[in-house]
Specification:
The chain is mostly helical. 79% of the residues lie in helices and 5% in strands. It has five helices and four strands; from the N terminus they run αααββαββα. The protein has a four-stranded mixed beta sheet with strand order 2-1-4-3.
């Protein structure tokens, strides 16, 4: 009976290890998607900022174009009036006005050139962010498409493991199973470990000689006095039984 209980506890341990791995996988998959969603949100925010800059630059470019055209018309009109100046004073006044308009237009043209250059830079930035968004979306959609299948497989495996766990639990007496569950809730895996050459494989501490002798007798399930894990003598579980 002792041998059977130890074997089932070892089976239970392995099943619980597999369950932990599957549960971590089920938790990790949605986290991966969420990380990509957050990345997309960041890229969308960057795209919105570039779009806002482009709108402002286009409005500025349009305004400068209108102002340059209006001043060109004023300069042309002033040139026509210049031919009709009745005296030197009026002539020079009109010349000063034309110079002022031409100087202002040169400033506006320089500003318009700077705006065009910035538009080109922001357009390139928009193309880059859109390309990055497309790449992340493609990766996201591919990952999402396989997520349901991945989750379904993990849940199916979990269902099988839980049945296997229930079967193992039926063989172990309730007091021992209770100890197992108690230790499992308070310590990291593993819960049940072999003792090899008098050393607990859970904490790597020597087992007291008398307890080691009792353990080798194989009459009752014992705990390590140091780490409190359930222990068994390695020779009681042959390698063939472990593989099985």
């Amino acid at each position: 009976m002792y041998q059977k209980q130890i074997e089932q506890l070892v089976v239970l341990q392995r099943v619980d290890d597999e369950i932990i791995v599957l549960q971590e996988d089920l938790t990790a998959a949605p986290r991966e998607l969420r990380a990509m969603e957050e990345k997309l949100e960041g890229l969308d925010a960057r795209k919105a900022q570039v779009e806002e800059k482009l709108d402002i630059l286009k409005q500025q470019q349009k305004k400068l174009g209108i102002e340059i055209d209006e001043d060109d018309a004023k300069i042309k009109k002033s040139k026509n009036k210049l031919m009709m100046a009745s005296n030197t004073k009026e002539y020079h006044a009109m010349m000063r006005e034309m110079d002022s308009l031409e100087k202002l237009n040169r400033i506006r043209e320089d500003e318009s050139t700077a705006v065009k250059e910035e538009l080109l830079r922001q357009t390139a930035a928009m193309e880059a962010v859109e390309e990055e968004i497309a790449g992340v979306k493609e990766e996201y959609n591919a990952k999402k498409a396989t997520l349901d299948e991945r989750v379904a497989e993990a849940e199916k495996a979990l269902e099988g493991l839980n049945k296997k766990r229930d079967k193992a639990c039926k063989v172990v007496p309730p007091p021992i199973l209770g100890r197992y569950e108690f230790i499992r809730s308070r310590l990291e895996n593993p819960v049940i470990v072999p003792v090899e050459e008098g050393v607990c494989c859970g904490c790597n501490i020597m087992i007291p000689p008398q307890k080691y002798i009792d353990l080798q007798k194989g009459q009752q399930i014992l705990s390590c006095p140091n780490c409190q894990r359930l222990i068994y003598w390695k020779e009681h579980i042959p390698e063939a039984a472990k593989v099985k």
